Each structure stands twice: as structure tokens, then as C-alpha cells.
Description:
This protein is mainly alpha-helical. The chain is built from 19 helices and five strands. The longest helix has 27 residues, at 52-78. The protein is globular, with a radius of gyration of 20 Å. The chain starts with 11 loop residues before the first helix and ends with a helix.
Amino acid sequence: MNEALPEVRFEEGAVLDEARQRAGLEDFGDGHFLDPMRRLLSSLEEEAQLHAMGRLTMFERIVGSLVGRLSAQDFFVRHPEILEEEIVAPTVIVGLARTGSTMMHRLLAADPSVYAVRWWECRAPSPYPGSDWRREDPRIPDAYTEIDAILEAAPGLASIHPWDAEGPDEEIMLLEHAFLSGVPDAFCNVPSYRRFVIESDMRDGYAYMKRMIKFLQWQKKEAGYPAERWILKAPFHVGRIPQLIEAFPDAMIVQTHRDPIETTPSIASLYTSTWRSTSDPVDPLLVGEQCLDLWSWGINKCLKDRDSGFEDKFIDVLYEDTRKDAMASIEFIYDRLERPLTDAAREAMARWGDDNRRDKRAVHSYTLEEFGYDREMIAEAFSDYRERFIIGRAESR
């Protein structure tokens, strides 16, 4: 079956030309994305060991991001008022992956007075040419089709993450259009690109992400959906707090906390499932090593950033507390934000909670050992974080 798949090349000219042809446009905007894109292309070709479908999948993501850049730039030129949009006091959820950040994001985003980036908007932030997107947006059914294809390629993902084409999701997929994100790393083994992203300044990426959020806010208003502020979320931000605050100076950060001894193998299990959808072979021990390195770096960087002057930006929420009484955690957050928790918001959050109980999805099963972990190894990598937010908090409770 693979013989029928088209051959693709991870070359700069090939992806740029393909994107221009598909979009019928030439202007990508500033060229800050070119060096990160070249590094990703090189890593995909030389390191990722992609099978034929995986090559096509990653090629399509790259071309899709480039088409998104072309289309967005065309809107910015034709509608300069887009960049005059103001993003006021967003609430940004960060934390290690698998700490309940998705649940918190979708609960907070149920409030009808806020905006969130929806999955379909992440994947296709620019309206299709000629579409009546203000009334019936064709990007939405396409998003459902894409999710169906993802889950067909990796059925185990359904038990790991709640997929929802119209639900709130991570704006990291907007950073992907700047080629400065953790998305490729989550799909396949690209260690040199992963290291490049860790070491990057990231300001160009966050500046571009902010432009895209302004673009989405403009679209939402045009479609008749006004709101007061944004609820954003991405575990990726945990190691980039200064860049996040530079982009959104009046943001408040909700950090979700859960013991890394529980979250780290869950993260590795997620990555193993996504890598297997694109790559042959996949070594769970290698996945485990990279996940431990990546997320311990991120959380330790976050601790340093908090202590360097950003502590007053943070609202801390423990996974166990939210699991036991989600509304109490919500009330705590709204109190810290000095925002009213309206009856309409409470009712919408309760509906979301009822409709999306964890027991409606299959159990996500994994072990420490399959990724080369033991409890002591993880505890050592996250020792400062666990002492500050897990062990100490549990003792105080």
C-alpha cells in the first residue's frame, strides 16, 4: 500500500514551492521562520526514520503551516485592522503535560464571556478563500475528518487525550507556523531540532503567535462572537515564561501541578503512540529518555523564572484538588483573577464536566519500566519541583 503514496522531499525549495502553488500566493511575511524550518527539514530527513506515511504526514504539516502563513499574511495586507486588535489580560494555563491542564482549559473556556483557540482554528487559522466562514465555516468539518484520520492511524490516542474538533486546544499549533514549537518532537524523533528549540530565544515565535491570536480574535468578532478576554493553554510554555510575559505583559498564569512520577510515563506513552504513527522503528526507552530530559528541563526552567521576578503572575492549582472538587479550583482561580464567576459560567462548566467525565474514555495503561524509568530516577530529575509543589503541598493538606 505504501507504494501508492507520493514521494516527498524535505527540501526548502520543495515545501515553499508546494505551499505557494496550493495557496496561490507568494508573500510569507518576514523571513524569521526560514532558519527554524530548515533545521526541522534536516532533522526529519536525517534523524526521524519516518516510514512512507510518516514522511507524507510530516511533509503535509510543514506545507500546511506554510500555506497558513501565506493566507494569514494575505489577510494582514488586505485587513490591516487585524493587527490593531488588543489581547487584554489573557489567562494562560501552563504546567507539565498530563497534569489536568486540558480539563482546566476546557472548564475555564466554557465560560461564555471568554475566547479560546479551538482545535479547528489551530489547524487552519486562515479562512478558506471564497468561503462564507462568518456563517458556516468549512474548516470545521475538515477538522473532524483530520481527527478521524489521526485516531485511525493511532487508535490508542483516544484513551490518552480527549479529541474534540470544536473544543479548546493548544495555541502551540500556532507557534508551529513559526517553526518554533514542540509539535514535531511529539510526532517523531528529531533530537537536533528539539535541542534547537530548547536553546532558541523564541521571541520571534511568540510574536508571531500573538499576531495569529489577534487574527483569530478579529475573525470571532466578524462572525458575531464578542468576548472579554482569552483563555490560552500549552504545556510548552512552561519553559518559556519570560517570552510569554513579554508577548502578553498583563497575562496571569494558572499552573497545574501533579507528581512527575505519575505524569512522566504518561507523557512517554503519549509520545510513543504518536511516534509510531509516523516512524519505524520506535524505541520506548529512547522516548522515555527524551521525555524525561525535555520536561525536567522545562519545569526547572519555570522554577528559575518564577523566582526571577514572575512569581506574582502565577496561580497554582493541584491536579488532585481539581479532580476532587473542580468547581472549588475554578472559584479559587476566579478569586485570584478578581473576576466574577457568573451563573451562566457555572452552568456551562457543569455541563462540560458532565459531558466529559474521564470514565467515558478507555483507561490509559502504561508502566514506568517500559520507558526505562523507576521512581527514584524521576524523583531525582524533578527533585526541586516535587519538594516545592508536590511533597510540601501534600503535607500541608
